[in-house]
Amino acid sequence: MTLAAILAAVISFALGALLALLTIPVLVWLERRVAGLVQDRLGPNRTNIGGFRLGGVVQSFADVVKLLLKEEYYPSHIKNGKWLFMLAPIITFAAALLAFMAIPFADTLIINNESLRIQPLPIDFGVFWYLAISSIGVLGVIFGGWLSHNKYSLLGAARAGSMVVSYELPLGLSILAFIITYDTIDFNAMVAWQSGTFFGFLPAWGILVQPLASIILIVALFAETNRNPFTVAEGESEIVAGFMTEYTAMKFAMYFMGEYVAMNTASAVIITMIFGGYQIPWVSTQMLLENFSTFSITLMIIVPVIVSVLVRWMQKNNRVRPSVSTDGGRNFETKVLTLAMIGMTLVVEAILIYLVFLAESSLANSITVALFQVVVFVVKLMIFNIFFILIRWTVPRFRYDQVQHLGWYYLLPLALINIFITALVVVGVSL
Amino acid sequence: MSQKTRESSITSDRIKVIPRYGSSLKDKLYLPAIYEGVKVTFKHLFTNLNDSNAIDTLEYPEEQPTDITSRYRGLHRLTHRADDSIACVACFMCATACPSNCIFIEATQREDGHDEKMPKSFFIDTLECIFCGYCVEACPCDAIRMDTGIFSLTGNKREDFVLNKEQLLANKGAFGEEVSCARN
Question: Which residues 18-37 of chain B have a CB within 8 Å of chain A?
Answer without folding.
Answer: 31, 34, 37
